[in-house]
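[audit] Reproducing an earlier prediction to check determinism. Same input, same settings, fresh worker. If the tokens differ from the archived copy the diff job will pick it up downstream; this log only records the rerun itself.
[audit] input (117 residues):
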Amino acid sequence: MSEQRKYDRHDSIFYLEIFDRQTGKLLGHAVDLSDKGLMMITSQPVERGRQFALRLQLPEPVESGNRAVEFDAETRWCRQEANPDLYGVGLEITDPPGAFQRALQDLGRGYTFPGKQ
């Protein structure tokens, strides 16, 4: 499979919780993030093209004082992980809000491993 990433990724040292803003339900955990997307680990498969209104819970408040950032995303892919009880889900952030980008920068200061292409 060819690499199609266009943005540096940041692997989180935490499994940051991702919630559905409409239901409040925990969907999974972010394991790597970029300016335009993220990979979520979840216990349920997610269909490609599904639209989400999401909230990413942060380990501590960011510049704005918030411990969460809200954004919309669409599923680009889903695959079963080595652990057959888990799925990796690629989410593309649609029209990333400035708050998401600022949170990503703050996370890069101590909460992620160095970026990779």
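[audit] rerun output stored. Observation attached for the diff report: Residues 5-13, 110-117 have pLDDT under 50 and may be disordered.
[audit] end
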